[in-house]
Structures
1.
Amino acid sequence: MSRNIDELKIQANTIRKDILKMIYNIQSGHLGGSFSMVEVLTALYFDEMHYDPHNPYLKDRDRFVLSKGHTAPALYATLANAGYFPKENLMTSFRRIDSMMQGHPDMRKTPGVEMTSGSLGIGLSAANGMALGNRYQGIGARVYCMIGDGEINEGQIWEAAATASHYHLDNLVAFTDVNGLQNDAETKKVKDMLDIAEKWKAFGFHTIEINGHDFNEIFAALDAARNCKGRPTAVISHTTKGKGVSFMENVVAFHGKTPTKEEYENGMAELEHAI
Amino acid sequence: MKKSFRSSLINAIAKNAENYPDMIVLNADSARALKLTDFSKAFPDRMIGVGISEADLIGTAAGLAATGLVPVVVGFSMFVSEKPFEQIRQAIAYPNLNVKIVATHSGLCVGQDGATHQALEDMAVIRSLPNFKVFAAADVTETEAALEAMLKHDGPAYLRLGRDLAEDIFEGRKNFTPGGADILREGDDVTIAACGLMVEQALMAACSLRSEGIRATVMNAYSIKPLPEQLLLEKAKKTGAFVTAEDHSIIGGLGSAVCEYLSGNCPVPVIRVGVPDRFGESGTQDELYKKYGLTADHIIKAAKQAVSMKTMNAKG
């Protein structure tokens, strides 16, 4: 498969700008953890996954479950760029009353959202269910799940990890977005989960560590996942929270803080300048 | 004759297996306890066990439903309603996914396992969730009818069963409709609306009351949500007094649901027979029902109270 990494970088940059615009516009939403996973989302939706935005409920579509649901802005911006709905909806709908784009993902309101999420810890179980359901129905589609590195504090993630491994779900890829920060502080300070890759390995996952902002590494991991039989794959995606805007990078406050006018303008200028 | 809920559950599942090829059964290390191992032998790819992890159990069921399958989650009531309540809310109720939960071992009838295993609040919490239907089965025939009705319905539903034996009230077949109820006995003085194992007690109570000159209507109120509203209204108007009976806390279950409806539509005295606001303990089912007020005698006393209140109301 020929992959145009330069085009994907431009796409990722566009998605970042859309995220910043939509959060600034409504003055609400989670920037940092949205920015950290943009390259992985771009790789999935603009290369890896099989889907039709005009026919979102195709039986054999690949599915993406955003378990770290608070980073919905990144998912919404990606889905809009992928053609599921008009981009102007990002400004008119997100977090507004009577709208199709809730504060956290709602599979019944937003086309392309595969699972309702927002309460942390549940997404991997649901992704397992989808992988099991596809297998039972003889559907060869793949399921991708994005989990936060704070979210892995949740016990249910590890219940689900054991289930995925027990059922040999090689049609499943679980990403952990390791941006190192969560709501209160650095993940190591809040509750140190020690070696995250070792944990997934111990649960029986084919485990790959990557720089989650490097498309070549992302694709290498996705290719390796597809070639791995009999085991689910865990991708430990090392990222930077707030990636793309210098003064937001690695700043705990930008987990949920919304940008001021000045921050917005400076941030947009940086993103414009990046490409 | 008494028959076992547990064997009725496997019969109900086996009966529907051919007609509903999309039905997948999920459990959390309770297949053997619920006598489901025959099903997993016959349909190995349709039985998913996730081990002792009930939060994961519910999330997995939600994912299966998202692919168009019809997951039936089975387990002890405490562990498939109250323990994973938040997952049920977020992953099933809110996205309105087509997951069925069949809860065995509901209420004090659990017996000797004691308070930790006696779900007295399951109907209260599940009933509070939008999109969910809540049913309780009184015997084995009703269990089978309920499961079939749940499979026909597209959306989340919760079925509450007892632990072990139940009197065979509906021999053979019976109707089971969301929002329905059965009138098992007609009488003008008071209506006894019961569900689950208390239906048998209600019938016994009605017999004794008749000998004392009180004629009771007995309603098997198997559909706790949606309620059989028209029937409740009709019987409230006709009898002017209600007793509810359930093996569940008096807070939040059938009794509460009936009060909520009647208070706004046809206020009549309603006396709730159920577990008082306290936890249970170990003991046999009979001992516990006596100690906690879940017998025909308690229903009789409640019925007399309800009738006397009606008279007081009439006198103004």
2.
Amino acid sequence: MENVVPFKIQLLSIIGSLLFMFFIFRLIVKGKLREEYSIVWIACTLLLLVFAIWRNGLDIVAKMLGIYYAPALIFLAAIFAIIIFLVHLSVTNSRLQKQIKDLTQEHALMKLELEKKKLES
Amino acid sequence: MERTGINKKLLIVIPCYNEQGNIGKVLNALSQLSIPGVEITALPVNDCSKDNTLEEIRSHTHLYVNLPVNLGIGGAVQSGYKYAKKNGYDMALQFDGDGQHPVEYIHELIKPLLEDKANVVIGSRFLAKEGFQSSYLRRSGINYFRRVIRMLLGITISDSTSGFRAIDKKTIDVVCNYYPDTYPEPEAIILYHMNSLVIKEIPVVMKARESGTSSIGTFSSIYYMMKVSLGILFIYIRLKANGKRRTI
């Protein structure tokens, strides 16, 4: 069991997770990513980091869930997370579209009011 | 003018997208219109046209809405309705900028509103079966919507895609709150009925458009059917759920 995850790849995944986390933090600091969206990404990176350090973790969790081939768990979890996040983005997008519509209408109607005031004076 | 003692304000909302060849004629025709006891205002809404629609509108009137972002016909019409609500209009009427809607029927269309017999009046091409009857494909689509609406609401609307419609003050409040963005006409019927507004259809004779193209091309007709079907179904479920919650 000790040789399931070789040391090299373990080091690589720890470095990768940390780099990803650093990248997310930098985006937040620069103001390019809002905190509410970053929570999901920080949680994801932490999860990656946990499994990178805890070498047998994946096997143990997979066995607990009755998954024969442990790496399949990674794909399952990743795809599930991606789908959830995409739905979340669609919801956000729909809300933005509604807000843009309301703003556009408000803006156009205010311009009309202004024009009317100008004509009156 | 104090003939009846009531002077009602009517706003004619004219959504236009790339209608430079039609909008001038439409505005001219509307400026000739007069209905006793009704104060008429025409309000063209330019939905971010790519041609000279805006210049054409400007040369005719100072009162217009110019949307900085394309919103689709529903969003454009709703802008007009919002203006009507803000400025205390009693009635609003949608009149398409392509010149298909007949000016002579406007009086007929608002009559049931003036007599308090309906909240929404729709001009239908198919009640009289005269004039422009639309293409075969479009007609079969309309037949399908008629069946769906009858199944859901138990009422028959012969021309659910007609944009030639007049609404009263109560309905203006409803549509300011929510109105579908794209292809709003069939969905709006569900919205009206579920808000217990009375819908009435009157026969009108429409013309084929003189210039420009329809907002619905052949390629997008499948998308149109799907979008509108989903829209109808979901607005029905949503309002049904809301109605139940209210009664509890």
3.
Amino acid sequence: MPDSWQQANRDHKAAHHELLTLTASSDRCLRTVWLNPFDNQLSVAEMEITQGCFPSLAVNLPETAWDEREIHDMFGWTPTGHPDLRPLIRTPRWPEAYFPLRKSQQMPQWLEVEPDLPSLKVEGDGVTIMKVGPTHAGIIESGHFIFSLIGENILHLDAHLFQNHRGVEALLEDTTVNEVAPLVTRICAADTVSNQTNWASAVERLAGFTPAPRTVLQRIILLEAERILSHLNDLAQIPAGVGFQVAHQRALALKESWQRSLEFLYGHRFLFDTVHPGWTRSAPADLLLNSLANLRRHWVPWRQLVVGHHGFADRMGGIGQTTLAQIDRFGAQGVAARAAGKTFDARQSTAYYEGFFTGPVTRSAGDVQARFDVRLDEVEASMQIIESAAGQLEIESPTEPEFLAPKDLSGRIVTFTESPHGLNSHDVTLSNGNVFRYHIRSAPFRNWPLLAQTVAGNAVADFPLINKSFELCYSCTDR
Amino acid sequence: MAKAIRSLQIRHVDAGSCNGCEQELTALTGRDYDIQRHGIDIVASPRHADSLIVTGPVTDTMALPLERVWETIPRPRVRIAFGNCAIGTGVFQRAYASHGGLADSDIEIPGCPPHPETALRLLSEWMTSHQRNRQTYVSKVTNLGNC
């Protein structure tokens, strides 16, 4: 069994499948789910964990290294042969025998010690250690970074995340089907529609319910509206990373005007609580198209400003380069992967996007400039998708079938969407209308280890710029 | 001697937020809200600050770093809970690694996340209704007789 576990997963990777989830559950089931991007089929590999151990995949598949460390922290089961089993989420403050995802755990009594974890540093002549965080000199999420520097250049970065770990998965396992939506909505403000859609489709598919075409169109519009919002935020932060204040402030103003439109259309500036199992908040097509036209009116001159600015281009080109080989090795996703030439966007594997999605936006340079440019093009592609979906809203009748999730809904399912950050998967197990296991795997979780690799060799002063161009979310990684 | 509050310099610490509150704080610094014209600003060091804004339900890992930032802020100083999670009314209060919000906050700015307009209004109102003393901020409404 262990051999076949490793072999099966290696085979999927060799066939260029995308890893959706690798996780365990308290019934000692270890499971990976892979997406075949060529025929859009999902495949499952499973094994039972016996004697608290399972064979590690991390040496051959580095993208699984963090997943296995997470399982080690949360369940206490050991991936045998894992090259780096330092705690990922646990801190020295956690009681030794506390494993939050094993069932029937009492609330922990935290130990009165510092939360710092052992770090990996480079030692030797001329090497300086620079620690940053967990609190930062700006409005940023919390993370702790240990840089080993030689002169001004980064030799090695050890990123300690999970400062924002709330315990969302364990909290979800305490809920009934009707209580999940408000929690899932608030895992991450930048990927909220994607998370809500994953949950809604999980319930609908387990219940054998097909949402009305109009509901599906509204979901596409909301997913794209969220992509525009999140990309505008990232596009505003990248100029800030090089001190290009005019572009930064004007992009923030663009984002603000889009948020005001979303509040007017859907009642929330971040689209919280808009997608539910069976129904979706809707907005009239004409108002939606008006808002989009207004955004475009300001977007076009802003794009001209940033694209035509040579000084800005000079600061982005060649900085923070990744190669396609690194992207594949780490299973990286989203904008960062496409900017290095990976031709995968989960929308191409999502049935309801057929006829709307025209293919992934890619670049090949893999630097800050490429990541900036992919976002520029994706914003415009999203505007076009919203326009064509809004056009069809008129045709579809507004009557919606009633849907109530069955009280005894049971089963296990994996759903995914392309969030603004990349491939976002939920592995949901329901038992008699209660959540038995809820696993959330977002793209930034895969991309963080790649970021640490990418920054090596770059000037430490460029770290904020490179970091902003990846725009990795802490909250959906830490959960 | 008491002085009216004309400025509020804020240090921000994220203690488990979903990033929505951060984005709205950033929006406050943009040209549409422009908190600087109200004398309010987000500063880079707690040494430059006279207030602490906390977002998120206070995760266990951030609980100590958060208090360390608070200890570094010179007096008089004020603790601000930004958003429902920090106030203690958010959806993640019961999560095992959440401490259930910011203890002993002086100002609460509700919302999930708070609307920038709400935040601006509540901060401005607090500034006009309080005075700066050597050690603490005192409410003009209740303590006028002592000044």
4.
Amino acid sequence: MNLKQTLLIAITISFIVLGSWETYWRSQGYYPTLDDNKDLWAVQRSKVTKATSNDVVLMGSSRVLFDIQLDEWEAETGKRPIQLASAGATPLPLFSDIVNNSDYTGTVVVGVTPGLFFSTTYPMAPPWKRVQTRVNYYQDRTFAQRLNHQISLPFQNNLAFMVSFEEKGYADEINLNGLLKRIRIGNRTGNKMMPPFHEFSNIALDRNTKMKDRTATDTAFANTVKAVWAFYQQDPHPPEKEATMTFFLKDAKKFKDRGGSLVLLRCPSSGRDRMGENMDLPRTELWDDLVTQANVPSYHFEDYDQLNQFICPEDSHLSGPDAQIFTTELTKIMIQDSVLTNSKTN
Amino acid sequence: MLFNSLSFAVFLIIVLALYYAPLFNWANKKRILLLSSYVFYGLWNPPLILLLWISTIVDWTAGNKLAKEENQNKRKFWLLLSMFVNLGFLAFFKYGDFLLENFVMFMDAIGVEFHVQPMDIILPMGISFYTFQTMSYTIDIYKKKIKPANTFLDFALYVTFFPQLVAGPIVRAKDLITQFYEPKKATINQFLFGLFSLTLGLFMKVVLADTLLSETSDTVFDSRNVLSFWDALAGTLAFSGQILFDFAGYSTCAIGIALMLGIILPDNFKYPYASVGFSEFWKRWHISLSTWLRDYLYIPLGGSHNGLIKTYVVLMITMLLGGLWHGAAWTFVVWGALHGTYLILERIQKKYLPFKITPFNGFFLAILTYACINTTWVFFRAKDFVTAKNMVGSLFYINPEGEKVLESFDIIKVFTVITILFLCHWIMRNTSVKSVSEKIPSWLLGVIWAIMFVLIVIAQGTGEQFIYFQF
């Protein structure tokens, strides 16, 4: 048995196959990207423990993630906010975690996407579980997991075939499991088939997220994302207004009482999404009542000329350039209202 | 730290570099291995290293006292102290909540209202493995089968040796400590075969267990509904493959890593699904645990020397406790009871209805054995008896109208993997990877090695913990 020769053959074949694999996926339009996973999130969450009263924490769902651009925010205020928003998630468990498990007394901007904010307080419901899983992971993560994350970053940053998604179901998954999932024979379970859901944003190390240019320029591509929203809106659940507001307002009071600043933010939506929201989740019943009861500075995009002019390419999120303008204008308004300060000038 | 993680790859490279660097003598190399083992364990939960230290110090002291002490009462004291500490750890950390829950249920049953909050005790990784390992050391010295380790360093390394610390194989002192007495260095072929074994183990874990089988198994066993026959069957078969590839994968990695350091660990799995009968299954599945239970439980309780009925009772007790070793739940006890029953029935058959095993009937008997073992996996995997009952009902076609939760491709995938698994076990049952690898051409082995490596990389894996860590 000549294992030296065997190893040499194995290394050569592996190198050729993996090189070809990488080249193939790049030729298909894939490129190295970071995964918005619980490790990336936990690194940002850990920053809250050292944050001062001058810091800003952003939370909410994907609208806050896409629409608030950290560079523009920092340019206007002199402080880079901590981005903790999670796609498809309610901010309630995270806000509760920050209020009850930290001493943070800075500013918290809570994004209110009505369909998610008022959706549930049930721990196993996806909008809750998605973010609660991250909160738990942050609390329980081991040193080995932290190390794994750091070591994985160069691979994620340099290899297109390392594209991965924490949440299953993305059509762009090209790991072995994702490729096997593309094979379907009939529909034995009779479950409704979700349209292919393509990743339409890129995320940076500090979780600054931007919509991919293609989403804004390629209508067909944007329509694939709209089709996914339509799929999820097939069986809309009525809002759980009372339970969600009670839960949130209790934490809001506690946070304000200890000197924290809370801000509510409603980011833009357009087209079919906005129509559905206006019908099923009317502003007067939900947002306005929340603002009244929370009694904190609140910003609804409809109320400001600078903020209500945007069209979301896939109805729910702003394109990269629009998000930059939105962030700049929003921070200007907030500074004007003395909700935020510009630490560069003050 | 998990073998299937990037941090472990970096860790191993550093350990190997230090181990083979011509800078240290053998004692210092052992210190490096010991320190590395603590880092390996501590990166998961540093405070729980304390338990390892306590276990090490208690058994080291007990072992030395037992070796010197002639007074039988004092010897018994030292043995009992070791047992008390090790089993006490297990009882508290692993069975604390289970015992409490059952106590509350018992009090309720006799009409006494008793409320208590669960203790939510964290289960130290690998506690079942290292406590059994250290107990075997003390018991063997008590029985004067072995001498104490030459040095504290040798003993501490025996308890903590990172390749097998958290999920075995459970190695006996005579097999491992003595290897630490002389400088060890892997030959180039040993080193490379160790690397091959590590790749094979990771392939079993990352590709076969986690990528091809775990999702099907989870979908089926997490369902609260009554399932159709095909879903229940595919889920059960998927779990049978998942647990084998997960655990045998870990053992193969452990053996490979140790071999890269020039240390030989015993085989823990020998193609168990090709077993013809249940006693053979336990000679092939988790061998280090089954031999441990045989030597330190079954034989001390009387073994097969005290009449038929008592033998069966002892066998059943051993299997019940073996079941409980796997987890603090009654479902594991039922799993052990089923295996105990199978073993007893097999003994009865061998005594009253003996027949010759031929290659032809052997193949069908192996299928029958595998089918029976699959029934036991239902109780092993199900999180409660309701799920287990529903699953067994579906498997025996009592629920023809059960829910379909798997897509056709999932079922085809599981049946394909399991058929290949079974045939591989049958073909390999009288040989080993090492002897096969010696017989096939180098280029072919290289191609197989590359295929496994490429698939590991493409699968990426999600860093799933090994199933046996929870035991």
